[in-house]
Design goal:
This protein is α/β, with parallel strands linked by helices and 547 residues long. The protein is built from 12 helices and 37 strands. Helix content is 22%, strand content 35%. The strands form 9 sheets. Strands 8, 10, 11, 12, 13, 14, 15, 16, 17, 18, 19 and 20 form a 12-stranded mixed beta sheet that branches. Strands 22, 23, 24, 25, 26, 27, 28, 29, 30 and 31 form a 10-stranded mixed beta sheet that branches.
Length: 547
Protein backbone atom coordinates (compact mmCIF):
# COMPACT_ATOMS: atom_id res chain seq x y z
CA UNK A 1 0.00 0.00 0.00
CA UNK A 2 1.11 3.56 -0.70
CA UNK A 3 0.27 6.78 1.12
CA UNK A 4 -1.37 9.55 -0.89
CA UNK A 5 0.71 12.71 -0.63
CA UNK A 6 -2.41 14.89 -0.84
CA UNK A 7 -5.27 13.30 1.14
CA UNK A 8 -2.99 11.03 3.25
CA UNK A 9 -5.16 7.96 2.59
CA UNK A 10 -3.65 4.63 1.64
CA UNK A 11 -4.12 3.30 -1.87
CA UNK A 12 -3.11 0.12 -3.60
CA UNK A 13 -0.62 -0.08 -6.43
CA UNK A 14 -1.37 -3.48 -7.93
CA UNK A 15 0.93 -5.74 -9.90
CA UNK A 16 -0.94 -4.71 -13.05
CA UNK A 17 -0.39 -1.05 -12.15
CA UNK A 18 3.32 -1.73 -11.77
CA UNK A 19 3.39 -3.36 -15.21
CA UNK A 20 1.71 -0.28 -16.68
CA UNK A 21 4.26 2.04 -15.05
CA UNK A 22 7.05 -0.09 -16.50
CA UNK A 23 5.38 -0.14 -19.91
CA UNK A 24 4.97 3.63 -19.87
CA UNK A 25 8.41 4.17 -18.34
CA UNK A 26 7.06 6.29 -15.49
CA UNK A 27 7.49 6.08 -11.71
CA UNK A 28 4.64 5.05 -9.41
CA UNK A 29 2.20 7.90 -8.67
CA UNK A 30 2.37 9.82 -5.41
CA UNK A 31 -1.39 10.50 -5.30
CA UNK A 32 -4.33 8.12 -5.00
CA UNK A 33 -6.62 7.71 -8.07
CA UNK A 34 -9.20 10.20 -6.75
CA UNK A 35 -6.63 12.91 -6.06
CA UNK A 36 -5.01 12.33 -9.45
CA UNK A 37 -8.40 12.77 -11.10
CA UNK A 38 -9.12 15.87 -8.99
CA UNK A 39 -5.80 17.38 -10.10
CA UNK A 40 -6.54 16.81 -13.78
CA UNK A 41 -10.06 18.24 -13.78
CA UNK A 42 -8.87 21.30 -11.84
CA UNK A 43 -7.55 22.31 -15.27
CA UNK A 44 -10.98 22.12 -16.93
CA UNK A 45 -13.58 24.87 -17.09
CA UNK A 46 -16.71 23.70 -18.90
CA UNK A 47 -19.46 25.85 -17.42
CA UNK A 48 -18.14 29.41 -17.39
CA UNK A 49 -18.02 31.61 -20.47
CA UNK A 50 -16.63 35.14 -20.48
CA UNK A 51 -16.34 38.15 -22.72
CA UNK A 52 -12.75 38.75 -23.76
CA UNK A 53 -10.66 40.16 -26.62
CA UNK A 54 -8.29 38.57 -29.10
CA UNK A 55 -4.70 39.41 -28.19
CA UNK A 56 -3.83 40.12 -31.84
CA UNK A 57 -6.84 41.50 -33.72
CA UNK A 58 -8.59 42.78 -30.58
CA UNK A 59 -12.01 41.66 -31.72
CA UNK A 60 -14.53 40.74 -29.02
CA UNK A 61 -14.88 37.03 -28.45
CA UNK A 62 -16.19 34.33 -26.12
CA UNK A 63 -13.56 32.71 -23.90
CA UNK A 64 -13.26 30.22 -21.07
CA UNK A 65 -10.67 32.58 -19.56
CA UNK A 66 -12.03 35.64 -17.76
CA UNK A 67 -10.46 39.00 -18.60
CA UNK A 68 -9.04 39.47 -15.09
CA UNK A 69 -6.65 36.53 -15.51
CA UNK A 70 -4.18 38.43 -17.73
CA UNK A 71 -4.00 35.41 -20.05
CA UNK A 72 -3.48 36.35 -23.71
CA UNK A 73 -6.18 34.63 -25.78
CA UNK A 74 -6.64 34.34 -29.53
CA UNK A 75 -9.53 33.91 -31.91
CA UNK A 76 -9.27 30.86 -34.15
CA UNK A 77 -8.35 32.92 -37.23
CA UNK A 78 -5.41 34.60 -35.52
CA UNK A 79 -4.22 31.41 -33.84
CA UNK A 80 -3.90 29.62 -37.17
CA UNK A 81 -2.56 32.62 -39.06
CA UNK A 82 1.07 33.63 -39.63
CA UNK A 83 0.51 36.48 -37.18
CA UNK A 84 1.04 34.06 -34.32
CA UNK A 85 4.19 31.97 -34.00
CA UNK A 86 4.46 30.04 -30.70
CA UNK A 87 8.18 29.52 -31.27
CA UNK A 88 8.79 33.24 -30.69
CA UNK A 89 8.35 32.50 -26.99
CA UNK A 90 10.88 29.65 -26.86
CA UNK A 91 13.50 29.49 -24.12
CA UNK A 92 16.40 27.28 -23.15
CA UNK A 93 16.01 24.68 -20.42
CA UNK A 94 17.84 25.60 -17.21
CA UNK A 95 19.12 22.61 -15.23
CA UNK A 96 19.41 24.80 -12.13
CA UNK A 97 15.66 25.49 -11.86
CA UNK A 98 12.59 23.24 -11.47
CA UNK A 99 10.90 22.32 -14.74
CA UNK A 100 7.42 23.41 -13.61
CA UNK A 101 8.78 26.84 -12.63
CA UNK A 102 10.31 27.32 -16.07
CA UNK A 103 7.24 25.97 -17.80
CA UNK A 104 4.89 28.31 -15.88
CA UNK A 105 7.10 31.29 -16.73
CA UNK A 106 7.07 30.45 -20.44
CA UNK A 107 3.37 29.54 -20.54
CA UNK A 108 2.29 32.86 -19.05
CA UNK A 109 3.62 34.70 -22.11
CA UNK A 110 2.22 32.44 -24.84
CA UNK A 111 -1.23 33.26 -26.27
CA UNK A 112 -3.72 30.41 -26.44
CA UNK A 113 -7.04 29.71 -28.11
CA UNK A 114 -9.82 31.54 -26.31
CA UNK A 115 -12.16 28.58 -26.64
CA UNK A 116 -12.03 25.15 -28.27
CA UNK A 117 -14.69 24.42 -30.87
CA UNK A 118 -14.08 23.40 -34.45
CA UNK A 119 -15.95 22.71 -37.69
CA UNK A 120 -19.16 24.08 -36.21
CA UNK A 121 -21.84 26.53 -37.31
CA UNK A 122 -23.49 29.06 -35.01
CA UNK A 123 -22.05 27.36 -31.94
CA UNK A 124 -19.65 29.93 -30.48
CA UNK A 125 -20.78 29.23 -26.92
CA UNK A 126 -19.53 25.64 -26.93
CA UNK A 127 -16.29 24.28 -25.52
CA UNK A 128 -14.21 21.21 -26.45
CA UNK A 129 -16.77 20.52 -29.16
CA UNK A 130 -16.76 19.77 -32.87
CA UNK A 131 -19.01 19.39 -35.91
CA UNK A 132 -22.09 20.98 -34.32
CA UNK A 133 -24.79 23.29 -35.60
CA UNK A 134 -26.87 25.80 -33.64
CA UNK A 135 -25.66 24.62 -30.23
CA UNK A 136 -25.34 26.82 -27.14
CA UNK A 137 -23.69 26.55 -23.73
CA UNK A 138 -22.42 23.03 -24.23
CA UNK A 139 -19.26 21.10 -23.44
CA UNK A 140 -17.96 18.03 -25.27
CA UNK A 141 -20.69 18.15 -27.89
CA UNK A 142 -20.08 16.21 -31.08
CA UNK A 143 -22.09 15.93 -34.30
CA UNK A 144 -25.11 17.53 -32.67
CA UNK A 145 -27.68 20.10 -33.73
CA UNK A 146 -29.85 22.46 -31.67
CA UNK A 147 -28.53 21.11 -28.37
CA UNK A 148 -28.26 23.52 -25.44
CA UNK A 149 -26.98 23.49 -21.85
CA UNK A 150 -25.56 19.98 -22.22
CA UNK A 151 -22.34 18.16 -21.39
CA UNK A 152 -20.86 15.12 -23.19
CA UNK A 153 -23.61 14.72 -25.79
CA UNK A 154 -22.96 13.00 -29.12
CA UNK A 155 -25.20 12.81 -32.21
CA UNK A 156 -28.13 14.51 -30.51
CA UNK A 157 -30.88 16.68 -31.98
CA UNK A 158 -33.24 19.25 -30.49
CA UNK A 159 -32.36 18.59 -26.84
CA UNK A 160 -31.61 20.49 -23.66
CA UNK A 161 -29.99 19.67 -20.34
CA UNK A 162 -28.25 16.41 -21.24
CA UNK A 163 -25.36 14.73 -19.44
CA UNK A 164 -23.49 11.73 -20.89
CA UNK A 165 -26.02 11.04 -23.64
CA UNK A 166 -25.90 9.95 -27.28
CA UNK A 167 -28.34 9.77 -30.15
CA UNK A 168 -31.13 11.60 -28.35
CA UNK A 169 -33.93 13.61 -29.97
CA UNK A 170 -36.36 16.08 -28.41
CA UNK A 171 -35.29 15.16 -24.88
CA UNK A 172 -34.91 17.22 -21.70
CA UNK A 173 -33.09 16.63 -18.41
CA UNK A 174 -31.58 13.24 -19.25
CA UNK A 175 -28.50 11.56 -17.78
CA UNK A 176 -26.56 8.52 -19.04
CA UNK A 177 -29.06 7.72 -21.80
CA UNK A 178 -28.93 6.74 -25.44
CA UNK A 179 -31.33 6.34 -28.37
CA UNK A 180 -34.27 8.02 -26.64
CA UNK A 181 -36.81 10.44 -28.07
CA UNK A 182 -39.51 12.88 -26.95
CA UNK A 183 -38.85 12.23 -23.26
CA UNK A 184 -38.01 14.10 -20.07
CA UNK A 185 -36.14 13.30 -16.84
CA UNK A 186 -34.59 10.00 -17.86
CA UNK A 187 -31.69 8.21 -16.15
CA UNK A 188 -29.83 5.20 -17.54
CA UNK A 189 -32.39 4.60 -20.26
CA UNK A 190 -32.10 3.42 -23.85
CA UNK A 191 -34.61 3.17 -26.69
CA UNK A 192 -37.30 4.89 -24.64
CA UNK A 193 -39.80 7.32 -26.15
CA UNK A 194 -42.65 9.58 -25.05
CA UNK A 195 -41.76 9.03 -21.39
CA UNK A 196 -41.32 11.08 -18.21
CA UNK A 197 -39.38 10.19 -15.02
CA UNK A 198 -37.72 6.85 -15.88
CA UNK A 199 -34.76 5.00 -14.39
CA UNK A 200 -33.02 2.09 -16.14
CA UNK A 201 -35.76 1.42 -18.68
CA UNK A 202 -35.17 -0.18 -22.07
CA UNK A 203 -37.06 -0.54 -25.33
CA UNK A 204 -40.27 1.04 -24.06
CA UNK A 205 -42.82 3.71 -24.91
CA UNK A 206 -44.99 5.99 -22.78
CA UNK A 207 -43.61 5.15 -19.35
CA UNK A 208 -44.34 7.55 -16.50
CA UNK A 209 -42.47 7.24 -13.19
CA UNK A 210 -41.11 3.80 -14.05
CA UNK A 211 -38.05 1.87 -12.87
CA UNK A 212 -36.29 -1.12 -14.47
CA UNK A 213 -38.94 -1.70 -17.14
CA UNK A 214 -38.11 -3.71 -20.26
CA UNK A 215 -39.97 -3.72 -23.58
CA UNK A 216 -43.30 -2.35 -22.35
CA UNK A 217 -45.83 0.31 -23.34
CA UNK A 218 -48.09 2.52 -21.27
CA UNK A 219 -47.06 2.08 -17.63
CA UNK A 220 -47.41 4.45 -14.67
CA UNK A 221 -45.26 3.76 -11.59
CA UNK A 222 -44.52 0.30 -13.03
CA UNK A 223 -48.23 -0.57 -13.37
CA UNK A 224 -50.04 -1.06 -16.70
CA UNK A 225 -52.17 1.88 -17.82
CA UNK A 226 -53.93 3.10 -20.93
CA UNK A 227 -52.26 5.36 -23.45
CA UNK A 228 -54.72 8.12 -22.53
CA UNK A 229 -53.91 7.82 -18.83
CA UNK A 230 -50.17 8.10 -19.51
CA UNK A 231 -50.59 11.14 -21.72
CA UNK A 232 -52.86 12.82 -19.18
CA UNK A 233 -50.33 12.31 -16.36
CA UNK A 234 -47.51 13.67 -18.55
CA UNK A 235 -49.58 16.74 -19.40
CA UNK A 236 -50.27 17.35 -15.73
CA UNK A 237 -46.59 16.95 -14.84
CA UNK A 238 -45.81 19.75 -17.30
CA UNK A 239 -48.40 22.21 -16.06
CA UNK A 240 -49.04 21.56 -12.36
CA UNK A 241 -45.93 22.08 -10.17
CA UNK A 242 -47.62 20.76 -7.03
CA UNK A 243 -48.62 17.55 -8.78
CA UNK A 244 -45.08 17.36 -10.26
CA UNK A 245 -43.52 17.34 -6.78
CA UNK A 246 -46.03 14.86 -5.36
CA UNK A 247 -45.61 12.46 -8.26
CA UNK A 248 -41.83 12.82 -8.17
CA UNK A 249 -41.83 11.65 -4.51
CA UNK A 250 -43.72 8.49 -5.50
CA UNK A 251 -41.27 7.88 -8.35
CA UNK A 252 -38.24 8.44 -6.09
CA UNK A 253 -39.65 6.00 -3.53
CA UNK A 254 -40.15 3.36 -6.21
CA UNK A 255 -36.61 3.97 -7.42
CA UNK A 256 -35.31 3.63 -3.87
CA UNK A 257 -37.26 0.44 -3.10
CA UNK A 258 -36.30 -1.57 -6.19
CA UNK A 259 -32.86 -3.22 -6.46
CA UNK A 260 -29.99 -1.63 -8.36
CA UNK A 261 -27.43 -3.33 -10.55
CA UNK A 262 -23.94 -3.50 -9.05
CA UNK A 263 -22.40 -1.78 -12.08
CA UNK A 264 -24.10 -0.06 -14.99
CA UNK A 265 -22.20 -1.67 -17.84
CA UNK A 266 -23.31 -2.69 -21.34
CA UNK A 267 -21.56 -5.14 -23.66
CA UNK A 268 -18.34 -5.22 -21.65
CA UNK A 269 -15.64 -7.82 -21.07
CA UNK A 270 -13.49 -7.84 -17.92
CA UNK A 271 -14.48 -4.34 -16.78
CA UNK A 272 -14.97 -2.56 -13.48
CA UNK A 273 -16.28 0.86 -12.56
CA UNK A 274 -19.58 2.40 -13.65
CA UNK A 275 -21.35 3.64 -16.78
CA UNK A 276 -19.09 1.56 -19.03
CA UNK A 277 -20.26 0.71 -22.56
CA UNK A 278 -18.70 -1.48 -25.29
CA UNK A 279 -15.35 -1.85 -23.52
CA UNK A 280 -12.77 -4.56 -22.90
CA UNK A 281 -10.24 -4.71 -20.05
CA UNK A 282 -11.39 -1.40 -18.53
CA UNK A 283 -10.46 -1.25 -14.86
CA UNK A 284 -11.79 1.36 -12.45
CA UNK A 285 -13.36 3.36 -15.27
CA UNK A 286 -16.32 5.73 -15.27
CA UNK A 287 -18.42 7.04 -18.18
CA UNK A 288 -16.31 5.39 -20.85
CA UNK A 289 -17.26 3.91 -24.21
CA UNK A 290 -15.45 1.93 -26.92
CA UNK A 291 -12.24 1.61 -24.90
CA UNK A 292 -9.78 -1.24 -24.52
CA UNK A 293 -6.96 -1.82 -22.03
CA UNK A 294 -7.63 1.28 -19.95
CA UNK A 295 -7.29 1.90 -16.21
CA UNK A 296 -8.50 4.83 -14.11
CA UNK A 297 -10.24 6.40 -17.10
CA UNK A 298 -12.95 9.00 -16.65
CA UNK A 299 -15.19 10.19 -19.49
CA UNK A 300 -13.31 8.63 -22.38
CA UNK A 301 -14.25 7.38 -25.83
CA UNK A 302 -12.26 5.36 -28.37
CA UNK A 303 -9.16 4.96 -26.20
CA UNK A 304 -6.70 2.08 -26.30
CA UNK A 305 -3.89 1.68 -23.79
CA UNK A 306 -4.86 4.71 -21.69
CA UNK A 307 -4.08 5.10 -18.01
CA UNK A 308 -5.16 7.89 -15.65
CA UNK A 309 -7.00 9.84 -18.31
CA UNK A 310 -9.94 12.24 -18.33
CA UNK A 311 -12.17 13.59 -21.13
CA UNK A 312 -10.36 11.80 -23.93
CA UNK A 313 -11.49 11.11 -27.49
CA UNK A 314 -9.63 8.85 -29.88
CA UNK A 315 -6.24 8.22 -28.26
CA UNK A 316 -3.69 5.45 -27.88
CA UNK A 317 -0.85 4.75 -25.48
CA UNK A 318 -1.38 7.74 -23.20
CA UNK A 319 -0.75 8.33 -19.51
CA UNK A 320 -1.98 11.07 -17.14
CA UNK A 321 -3.67 13.17 -19.82
CA UNK A 322 -6.74 15.40 -19.80
CA UNK A 323 -8.81 16.79 -22.66
CA UNK A 324 -6.82 15.30 -25.52
CA UNK A 325 -8.19 14.18 -28.89
CA UNK A 326 -6.45 11.91 -31.41
CA UNK A 327 -3.24 11.81 -29.39
CA UNK A 328 -0.84 8.89 -29.71
CA UNK A 329 2.04 8.27 -27.32
CA UNK A 330 1.34 11.12 -24.93
CA UNK A 331 2.16 11.70 -21.28
CA UNK A 332 1.04 14.45 -18.91
CA UNK A 333 -0.69 16.47 -21.63
CA UNK A 334 -3.63 18.85 -21.51
CA UNK A 335 -5.80 20.01 -24.44
CA UNK A 336 -3.55 18.48 -27.05
CA UNK A 337 -5.18 17.56 -30.36
CA UNK A 338 -4.15 15.48 -33.41
CA UNK A 339 -0.61 15.01 -32.13
CA UNK A 340 1.87 12.29 -31.22
CA UNK A 341 4.84 11.69 -28.93
CA UNK A 342 4.09 14.66 -26.67
CA UNK A 343 4.89 15.15 -22.99
CA UNK A 344 3.96 17.98 -20.63
CA UNK A 345 2.30 19.90 -23.43
CA UNK A 346 -0.75 22.14 -23.22
CA UNK A 347 -3.06 23.64 -25.85
CA UNK A 348 -1.05 22.10 -28.70
CA UNK A 349 -2.36 21.17 -32.13
CA UNK A 350 -1.13 18.87 -34.89
CA UNK A 351 2.38 18.56 -33.45
CA UNK A 352 4.90 15.81 -32.73
CA UNK A 353 7.86 14.98 -30.52
CA UNK A 354 7.66 17.93 -28.15
CA UNK A 355 8.21 18.41 -24.42
CA UNK A 356 6.96 21.16 -22.12
CA UNK A 357 5.36 23.26 -24.84
CA UNK A 358 2.41 25.63 -25.09
CA UNK A 359 0.14 26.45 -28.08
CA UNK A 360 2.21 24.65 -30.67
CA UNK A 361 0.64 24.28 -34.11
CA UNK A 362 2.13 21.91 -36.66
CA UNK A 363 5.54 21.90 -34.95
CA UNK A 364 7.91 19.13 -33.90
CA UNK A 365 11.08 18.59 -31.87
CA UNK A 366 10.38 21.49 -29.48
CA UNK A 367 11.23 21.96 -25.81
CA UNK A 368 9.77 24.92 -23.93
CA UNK A 369 8.65 26.21 -27.34
CA UNK A 370 12.19 26.24 -28.67
CA UNK A 371 12.80 24.19 -31.81
CA UNK A 372 15.70 21.72 -32.01
CA UNK A 373 17.09 19.37 -34.62
CA UNK A 374 16.01 15.74 -34.34
CA UNK A 375 19.36 14.72 -32.85
CA UNK A 376 19.41 17.63 -30.41
CA UNK A 377 15.88 16.84 -29.25
CA UNK A 378 16.60 13.15 -28.76
CA UNK A 379 19.71 13.93 -26.74
CA UNK A 380 18.21 16.64 -24.53
CA UNK A 381 14.83 15.16 -23.52
CA UNK A 382 16.28 12.14 -21.62
CA UNK A 383 18.53 14.51 -19.67
CA UNK A 384 15.55 16.68 -18.71
CA UNK A 385 13.57 13.62 -17.62
CA UNK A 386 16.45 12.38 -15.43
CA UNK A 387 16.78 15.85 -13.92
CA UNK A 388 13.02 15.96 -13.20
CA UNK A 389 13.18 12.51 -11.61
CA UNK A 390 16.06 13.65 -9.42
CA UNK A 391 14.11 16.62 -8.05
CA UNK A 392 10.82 14.67 -7.81
CA UNK A 393 8.88 16.28 -10.67
CA UNK A 394 8.69 13.64 -13.38
CA UNK A 395 5.77 11.23 -13.48
CA UNK A 396 3.10 13.64 -12.27
CA UNK A 397 0.54 15.76 -14.12
CA UNK A 398 0.86 19.55 -13.89
CA UNK A 399 0.49 20.73 -10.27
CA UNK A 400 -2.96 22.07 -9.40
CA UNK A 401 -1.51 25.48 -8.57
CA UNK A 402 -0.58 25.87 -12.25
CA UNK A 403 -4.20 25.65 -13.37
CA UNK A 404 -5.24 28.83 -15.23
CA UNK A 405 -8.63 28.68 -13.49
CA UNK A 406 -9.95 29.26 -10.04
CA UNK A 407 -10.80 25.90 -8.48
CA UNK A 408 -14.45 26.98 -8.23
CA UNK A 409 -14.58 27.48 -12.01
CA UNK A 410 -13.58 23.91 -12.79
CA UNK A 411 -15.03 20.44 -12.95
CA UNK A 412 -13.06 19.66 -9.81
CA UNK A 413 -15.59 21.74 -7.87
CA UNK A 414 -18.39 19.63 -9.38
CA UNK A 415 -16.99 16.30 -8.21
CA UNK A 416 -14.76 17.34 -5.29
CA UNK A 417 -16.40 20.49 -3.85
CA UNK A 418 -14.28 22.62 -1.54
CA UNK A 419 -14.75 25.91 0.28
CA UNK A 420 -12.67 28.93 -0.68
CA UNK A 421 -10.70 28.77 2.57
CA UNK A 422 -9.73 25.13 1.95
CA UNK A 423 -8.66 25.85 -1.62
CA UNK A 424 -6.49 28.83 -0.73
CA UNK A 425 -4.90 26.91 2.16
CA UNK A 426 -3.59 24.40 -0.39
CA UNK A 427 -2.06 27.19 -2.44
CA UNK A 428 -4.59 26.76 -5.26
CA UNK A 429 -6.48 29.53 -7.03
CA UNK A 430 -10.03 30.75 -6.37
CA UNK A 431 -11.94 33.07 -8.69
CA UNK A 432 -14.08 35.94 -7.38
CA UNK A 433 -14.67 37.29 -10.87
CA UNK A 434 -18.32 38.03 -11.57
CA UNK A 435 -19.47 38.32 -15.20
CA UNK A 436 -21.78 41.15 -16.13
CA UNK A 437 -25.36 40.72 -14.98
CA UNK A 438 -27.69 40.28 -18.00
CA UNK A 439 -28.79 43.69 -19.22
CA UNK A 440 -32.53 43.93 -18.71
CA UNK A 441 -34.96 46.53 -17.52
CA UNK A 442 -37.18 44.00 -15.74
CA UNK A 443 -36.59 41.21 -13.23
CA UNK A 444 -38.99 38.52 -12.02
CA UNK A 445 -38.54 35.94 -9.24
CA UNK A 446 -38.87 32.45 -10.70
CA UNK A 447 -41.72 31.56 -8.34
CA UNK A 448 -43.86 34.23 -9.99
CA UNK A 449 -43.58 32.72 -13.45
CA UNK A 450 -46.80 31.22 -14.88
CA UNK A 451 -46.89 27.43 -14.46
CA UNK A 452 -48.15 26.78 -17.99
CA UNK A 453 -45.79 27.62 -20.86
CA UNK A 454 -48.84 28.79 -22.84
CA UNK A 455 -49.11 31.72 -20.45
CA UNK A 456 -45.49 32.83 -20.95
CA UNK A 457 -45.31 35.89 -23.24
CA UNK A 458 -42.59 36.51 -25.83
CA UNK A 459 -41.49 39.39 -23.63
CA UNK A 460 -39.93 36.91 -21.17
CA UNK A 461 -36.84 37.15 -23.40
CA UNK A 462 -36.35 40.70 -22.13
CA UNK A 463 -36.62 39.77 -18.46
CA UNK A 464 -34.04 38.49 -16.00
CA UNK A 465 -35.29 35.57 -13.92
CA UNK A 466 -34.10 35.26 -10.32
CA UNK A 467 -33.14 31.66 -9.59
CA UNK A 468 -35.02 30.09 -6.71
CA UNK A 469 -31.73 28.39 -5.82
CA UNK A 470 -28.92 30.94 -5.55
CA UNK A 471 -31.04 34.03 -6.25
CA UNK A 472 -28.83 35.09 -9.18
CA UNK A 473 -30.45 36.34 -12.40
CA UNK A 474 -30.44 34.35 -15.62
CA UNK A 475 -32.03 34.83 -19.02
CA UNK A 476 -33.99 32.68 -21.42
CA UNK A 477 -32.76 32.67 -25.03
CA UNK A 478 -35.13 32.52 -28.04
CA UNK A 479 -34.28 28.96 -29.07
CA UNK A 480 -34.77 27.84 -25.47
CA UNK A 481 -38.25 29.40 -25.29
CA UNK A 482 -39.16 27.74 -28.57
CA UNK A 483 -38.03 24.37 -27.17
CA UNK A 484 -40.16 24.72 -24.02
CA UNK A 485 -43.18 25.73 -26.07
CA UNK A 486 -42.74 22.84 -28.50
CA UNK A 487 -42.55 20.33 -25.63
CA UNK A 488 -45.08 22.07 -23.40
CA UNK A 489 -42.54 22.37 -20.58
CA UNK A 490 -42.50 25.16 -17.98
CA UNK A 491 -39.73 27.74 -17.75
CA UNK A 492 -37.07 26.39 -15.33
CA UNK A 493 -36.69 28.04 -11.93
CA UNK A 494 -32.94 27.31 -11.74
CA UNK A 495 -30.08 28.61 -13.87
CA UNK A 496 -28.35 26.27 -16.30
CA UNK A 497 -25.37 25.84 -13.96
CA UNK A 498 -27.60 24.79 -11.07
CA UNK A 499 -29.50 22.37 -13.28
CA UNK A 500 -26.23 20.89 -14.50
CA UNK A 501 -25.00 20.38 -10.95
CA UNK A 502 -28.19 18.52 -10.05
CA UNK A 503 -27.58 16.14 -12.96
CA UNK A 504 -24.00 15.60 -11.81
CA UNK A 505 -25.30 14.72 -8.35
CA UNK A 506 -27.47 11.95 -9.83
CA UNK A 507 -24.29 10.03 -10.61
CA UNK A 508 -22.83 7.58 -8.14
CA UNK A 509 -19.46 8.40 -6.55
CA UNK A 510 -16.49 7.35 -8.64
CA UNK A 511 -15.33 4.86 -6.09
CA UNK A 512 -15.72 1.09 -5.78
CA UNK A 513 -16.92 -0.55 -2.56
CA UNK A 514 -16.74 -4.22 -1.64
CA UNK A 515 -20.11 -5.61 -0.59
CA UNK A 516 -22.38 -8.62 -1.12
CA UNK A 517 -25.18 -9.10 -3.59
CA UNK A 518 -28.40 -8.62 -1.62
CA UNK A 519 -29.93 -11.61 -3.39
CA UNK A 520 -27.33 -14.40 -3.76
CA UNK A 521 -24.77 -12.94 -1.28
CA UNK A 522 -21.76 -13.33 -3.57
CA UNK A 523 -18.97 -10.74 -3.40
CA UNK A 524 -19.35 -7.74 -5.70
CA UNK A 525 -17.66 -4.40 -6.28
CA UNK A 526 -19.98 -1.48 -6.76
CA UNK A 527 -20.24 2.30 -6.54
CA UNK A 528 -23.15 1.89 -4.11
CA UNK A 529 -21.89 2.47 -0.58
CA UNK A 530 -22.72 -0.54 1.66
CA UNK A 531 -23.69 1.90 4.42
CA UNK A 532 -26.53 3.22 2.26
CA UNK A 533 -29.96 1.52 2.30
CA UNK A 534 -30.44 0.59 -1.39
CA UNK A 535 -30.56 -3.05 -2.41
CA UNK A 536 -27.83 -3.98 -4.87
CA UNK A 537 -27.79 -7.12 -7.01
CA UNK A 538 -25.02 -8.76 -9.00
CA UNK A 539 -25.47 -8.82 -12.77
CA UNK A 540 -27.01 -12.31 -12.86
CA UNK A 541 -29.53 -11.63 -10.09
CA UNK A 542 -30.43 -8.22 -11.51
CA UNK A 543 -31.20 -9.62 -14.95
CA UNK A 544 -33.41 -12.29 -13.38
CA UNK A 545 -35.26 -9.49 -11.62
CA UNK A 546 -35.88 -7.28 -14.67
CA UNK A 547 -36.44 -9.87 -17.41
Amino acid sequence: MADCKQCKSQFEITKKDELIHKKMNVPAPSLCPSCRQQRRIAFRNDQNYYKNKCHICEKNLVSIYSSDKDIPVLCSDCFWSDKFDPLEYGQDFDFNRPFFEQYAEMRAKVPRLAIFNTQSENSDFTIHSSRNRNCYMGSSLLDSEDVHYSDWAFNCRDCMDLLFCSRMEMCYQCTDCQDCAHSNYLELCSNVSESFFCFDCRGSQRLVGCVSIRNRKNHILNQPASKEECLEIIKKLKTDPKFFEEFKKKYEKLKSDLPKRDAWTVNCEICSGNYVVDCKNATNCYNVKDCEDVRYAYEAKDVKDGYDVTRIGGAEFIYECKGVVDLQFGKFCNLTYQSDNMAYCDNCQASSYSFGCMSLKQNKNCILNKKYTVDEYRALVPKIIEYMKKIGEYGEFFPTELSPFGYNETKAQEFYPMAKKEVLAKGWKWSDFEPEVPKTTKTIPSNRLPDNIKDIPDDILNWAIESEGNGKPFKIIPQELKFYRTKGLPIPHLSYKERHQKRVELQNPRKLYARNCDECKKDIKTTYNPEHPEKVYCEECYFKHVY
